[in-house]
Write a structure and sequence with these properties.
Largest sheet: 4 strands, mixed
Strand order of the largest sheet: 3-4-5-6
Strand content: 25-35%
Radius of gyration: 23 Å
Mean pLDDT: 94
Structural class: alpha+beta
Distance between the termini: 70 Å
Helix content: 25-40%
CATH topology of the largest domain: Neutral Protease, domain 2
Number of strands: 14
Low-confidence stretches: none
């Protein structure tokens, strides 16, 4: 509202134009400022003058995030949206209402010159994640109980993934989901107390960050992006900036249940209420020329388990819709080629054989090729064609 000097000190008076959490940070430096207006909102990055390289990327991510979030979740209520650099005595970014302190060590001095089209742009991703917190944790504040972080961190992860998907395409998501899957599997292997289902996560980062990414993206693939976003928007409409009682993970899961078709109702307990694991494997993939087409035969095995908090697994009957895919050649061994055949089929038994025909020469094929499901060994889902 105003600033002035008195008694050798500098004073500032601020007034919030939107009800917000009593949660803020103070950062002071000799900053350069990049500014841009977007639909009446001041987008700003405060940075040290020698650390300007990634600032345009940050501005781009802020705008792309706002475009997606305002379209799908509702208005952004602050007049400013600011990223503020701080020194690398710590390496994190954090979202306060309208303001996001961001360590130079994970963004401003990150060297992206060797990032290829198949790599993850971590600067773009972190900004989109922190922007997600302007909705999840600031508009919708979870109650102080188990599962709160599913909404704050898990939903911010989902939100950032959708911004990345729109910017870079679905193919790039496979690498990110692999990264998140491996971090979740490592995290659960070193759990000291007991693993919780995602809707009861309790200060367990490998669950509410890593597992949530895989779970929410898979859920979106199954029931549709529009339905997931509708449920999340309904949660905002119900709880945004409201006084207690605050939202709980039960409220979120109930909203998901409302938009989930009956045929996919099994997803709710599998993904949110229990610890569900799969063992999907491509055993053998062969191809032969039949006339002008290639006949591809894929032999797979699929098992499903429920785990308790201590990691004891119990087999459970499988009756799940799982993707089966055949892919063309790729320039890189770790990148799937163009999908030639892609089917979502209901798997009801352990051992299965699938036969498809394609006009193009196949190179790889397998089951759950994009690693949407929580798989104990995600690297054996796809095999090369013999």
């Amino acid at each position: 509202m105003k600033s002035w000097d008195a008694n050798g000190k500098k004073y500032f008076k601020y007034h919030l134009d939107q009800k917000s959490l009593n949660f803020y940070s103070f950062i002071s430096a000799n900053y350069q400022v990049e500014r841009k207006k977007w639909h009446g909102i001041d987008l700003e990055v405060y940075y040290y003058k020698e650390h300007a390289t990634n600032v345009p990327n940050m501005m781009k991510s802020m705008q792309k995030a706002l475009e997606y979030y305002t379209t799908n979740f509702g208005p952004y209520y602050h007049k400013q949206c600011r990223i503020v650099e701080f020194p690398r005595y710590a390496s994190f970014a954090q979202a306060f209402p309208g303001t996001m302190p961001y360590s130079e060590g994970i963004g401003f001095i990150t060297d992206l010159r060797d990032v290829t089209k198949d790599d993850i742009d971590m600067v773009f991703y972190v900004v989109a994640h922190e922007m997600g917190h302007q909705y999840w944790a600031h508009q919708v504040c979870g109650a102080g109980m188990q599962g709160s972080e599913m909404m704050s961190e898990g939903f911010a992860q989902y939100s950032s993934l959708m911004v990345m998907e729109k910017e870079y395409g679905k193919d790039k998501m496979k690498k990110f989901l692999e990264y998140e899957m491996n971090d979740y599997l490592r995290g659960r292997s070193s759990e000291f107390e007991g693993e919780n289902p995602i809707m009861k996560t309790e200060n367990q980062q490998y669950i509410h960050y890593n597992k949530a990414s895989v779970v929410m993206y898979y859920f979106k693939e199954m029931i549709g992006e529009q339905n997931v976003n509708k449920a999340m928007k309904n949660l905002i409409n119900e709880f945004a900036y409201k006084d207690p009682p605050y939202a709980t993970s039960l409220d979120a899961v109930n909203e998901f249940r409302k938009v989930t078709p009956d045929s996919l109702g099994y997803l709710i307990p599998d993904l949110f209420e229990h610890i569900t694991l799969f063992s999907n494997r491509a055993l053998k993939v062969t191809s032969k020329k039949v006339g002008a087409e290639y006949e591809v035969t894929i032999k797979t095995t699929s098992e499903k388990f429920r785990s308790n908090a201590l990691g004891k697994e119990t087999p459970t009957p499988i009756a799940d819709y799982i993707d089966i895919g055949v892919f063309g050649k790729s320039d890189k061994a770790d990148v799937l080629g163009k999908p030639l055949v892609y089917k979502r089929l209901k798997i009801t038994k352990k051992d299965n054989t699938f036969v498809f025909k394609t006009k193009n020469e196949p190179a790889k094929a397998g089951i759950d090729p994009y690693n949407y499901l929580i798989d104990r060994i995600p690297d054996d889902n796809v095999k090369g064609v013999e």
